[in-house]
Structures are given as C-alpha cells and as structure tokens.
Amino acid sequence: WVYALLEEGYPSRYVVNKENISQLTVIRIKQCKDKTGPFKNQPKSGHPRLITDHIERNVI
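== 2983_t:CDS:1 ==
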C-alpha cells in the first residue's frame, strides 16, 4: 500500500498524510523494498525456537 502509492508517482508527503504514518516510516519502507526486491520474510535475529510448530501443536 505505501510502496504502491510511491510506485504510482505520489510524493512521499502525500503518502504520509494519506496513511497517517511518519516520513521516516515511508523512507524505510522504500529503502527496504529497493534493497531486497519483493517483500518477503527476512531472516530474524535472535535465538532460534527450541520447540517446533509440530511439537507445539501436539502439546496443545
């Protein structure tokens, strides 16, 4: 939605006002999209889970 508006040629100030978000958020979204290409899950930082989804379903 934010990136789509930017791609359609709307200025970032318009996107800020329309979506009620900060200018910094718009800049970060644009930089992230330009850097990584299509939006997809990126590797997360932190310790990996010890319990898998399969085990968690069996416990619950």
